[in-house]
Amino acid sequence: MDIHEILKKLPHRYPILLVDRVLEVEEGKRIKALKNVTINEPFFMGHFPHRPVMPGVMMLEAMAQAAALLAFAAQGSQPDDKSVIYFAGIDGARFKRPVEPGDQLIMEVTLERAKAGIYKFKGVASVDGNVACEAELMCTMRKIA
What are the structural domains, with CATH classification, of the chain? Predict the structure, then answer.
């Protein structure tokens, strides 16, 4: 799935869109996506000017966006202007290594459970095969007026 398909499925736009490409998707089971981390990211201006490091919350958001793409695939539906996926919870978040400009962040997210519009995912983000961040994510899909 290239950036054009991602833009059709996620409501996020620059500078918050954090998925550049989907490498693999197994509907209802797992997704593997990537984020090319560049020095041009706006958060690097303040985090940290002397040693740019991707904020942990941005890594979690990148995994959540990959999870949202998986949730839409699991439903077999396309998002519309009246649907949005929100974070409902984050458990067990761990940060193992810094992510810096020039890194390619690979997010692997698996769907653990889906019930009554609540989705639970296990996400792992890595760089060069080394875990940078992992967490359990809960999201919910809601209709908006």
Answer: 3-143 (3.10.129.10)
